[in-house]
Prior knowledge:
The complex is a heterodimer.
Chain A: E1 7-10, H1 11-25, E2 29-33, H2 43-48, E3 53-55, H3 60-70, E4 76-82, H4 83-86, H5 91-100, E5 106-110, H6 128-133, E6 139-141, H7 146-158, E7 163-166, E8 171-174, E9 188-191, E10 196-200, H8 203-217, E11 222-226, E12 229-231, H9 235-245, E13 248-255, H10 260-271, E14 276-281, H11 291-297, H12 302-314
Parallel strand pairs in A: 2-3, 2-4, 4-5, 5-7, 6-7, 10-11, 10-13, 13-14
Antiparallel strand pairs in A: 1-8, 6-12, 9-11
Chain B: H1 3-24, H2 29-34, H3 36-46, E1 63-66, H4 72-81, H5 123-136, E2 143-148, H6 155-166, E3 172-178, E4 181-182, E5 185-186, H7 187-191, H8 196-202, E6 206-211, H9 215-227, E7 235-240, H10 263-271
Parallel strand pairs in B: 1-2, 2-3, 3-7, 6-7
Antiparallel strand pairs in B: 4-5
Helix pairs in contact in B: 1-3, 1-4, 1-10, 3-4, 3-9, 5-6
Amino acid sequence: xxxxxxxxxxxxxxxxxxxxxxxxxxxxxxxxxxxxxxxxxxxxxxxxxxxxxxxxxxxxxxxxxxxxxxxxxxxxxxxxxxxxxxxxxxxxxxxxxxxxxxxxxxxxxxxxxxxxxxxxxxxxxxxxxxxxxxxxxxxxxxxxxxxxxxxxxxxxxxxxxxxxxxxxxxxxxxxxxxxxxxxxxxxxxxxxxxxxxxxxxxxxxxxxxxxxxxxxxxxxxxxxxxxxxxxxxxxxxxxxxxxxxxxxxxxxxxxxxxxxxxxxxxxxxxxxxxxxxxxxxxxxxxxxxxxxxxxxxxxxxxxxxxxxxxxxxxxx
Amino acid sequence: xxxxxxxxxxxxxxxxxxxxxxxxxxxxxxxxxxxxxxxxxxxxxxxxxxxxxxxxxxxxxxxxxxxxxxxxxxxxxxxxxxxxxxxxxxxxxxxxxxxxxxxxxxxxxxxxxxxxxxxxxxxxxxxxxxxxxxxxxxxxxxxxxxxxxxxxxxxxxxxxxxxxxxxxxxxxxxxxxxxxxxxxxxxxxxxxxxxxxxxxxxxxxxxxxxxxxxxxxxxxxxxxxxxxxxxxxxxxxxxxxxxxxxxxxxxxxxxxxxxxxxxxxxxxxxxxxxxxxxxx
Lengths: 316, 280
């Protein structure tokens, strides 16, 4: 199976377009931003719906608390800031006012992971998926490309409850069809295969597509899953695939601790223990550099997925 | 409502508070007793609200947010006494599977609670969000809040204070329980708030002062506060109270912030508080 590149865009722009469309079709959608309107691509929504756009300044704790309060009376607030300031900085506000209080807030987080690039480790959060998936009531979504981020943005407005939507800054290939349906909690099996299962999320889905091609050229049959929803996790899709391939690689732009890989390992450990290799950042902070340089240096690039797949197969 | 009636309700609420915390040997009687008169006035006179059926969205109702969630006993008692849930349920406070959690929560669906609180400093932000939604919905109702004075040491309060004034959120009346005490001692010694009135004024709020134990004064100041709604400024009332008000051995001491009276102390306290509406 080949993947046609439909264009090249950043996932944050997919969020911006999705939010703009939501503004037109759902009058209850409101947006809050902590001084990063341009970076989050929220300016189009702001321009068309100024009465439903709330600039809170550099005050993320207040933003999260306000978003929770705005749900009382029926609004659907979308908060926008960098992933670091969307999670670690405001964990307790999310925990008490949003997750525990079961509020219909959509926490939309850009510039996640290493691919934020030159700003360095202060901004490169690699723990956010872990923090968010630990919270009861929270749904965690990490879409793979521009089209999927747009589709996910629109889909979460129809889902009642707290959602963490994680996306990023770098321009990456688009491969999800513009008319694809986004179903929360249902994995996309991108390619069927028999030798190894690769489960990826976010930017690592494209890297895994590249890796699957290299592996295929070596005669290895890869089953490739885009696990865009980390929580609730599509355990049926994981078990079905790994029962067939008997080994698995998980790939993500996140710490090994707490991320997609750990979530998958929980499922397999409990129901179907099989060799599992992790492509993820290994208990270290990032640094300044270009996004692609950083992915290589920290071991979350195409070649790392290839090597992990070969190793997983060898352990069968 | 006649003042004597409000006083009677407040006396019963104080009985409920000391009985609730004593029964489970935990909870926060000091601040609860201090805010009894205010919350009684709020729910029995100041607010336009619907106990039954309770609506989470609270459209066309005034809403109340308790930011200092540890004084849950007074809120639970006032909610029960104003018809949100059966008074008998006060006996489940802090017990396993109770809807009356140690700190207020929404997950057990206790009518009257719209937001969890306990981790301090978040209620003003929650209230501002609700206030903005009221405006979007063209709902002329008012948002009321209560905060501890020690709680003002949390930075998020001042993020919210700045936002409210800059954005002219003028459908909110915030109240500070200014009892001067916190867990480790006097607020002045733990971390002084400095000139609190000047701080709120500098943040752009309309500032009023109130005696939280004088229903005449509470009525006068709440009426004045309401007259200032819709004029482009958020309103804050600095309410002077005594921690432990109504029980002579508790009054004015931070030691009763989070300690429950034992059986003997409970008997002593109950002799000082008239049973007016029947104990639960």
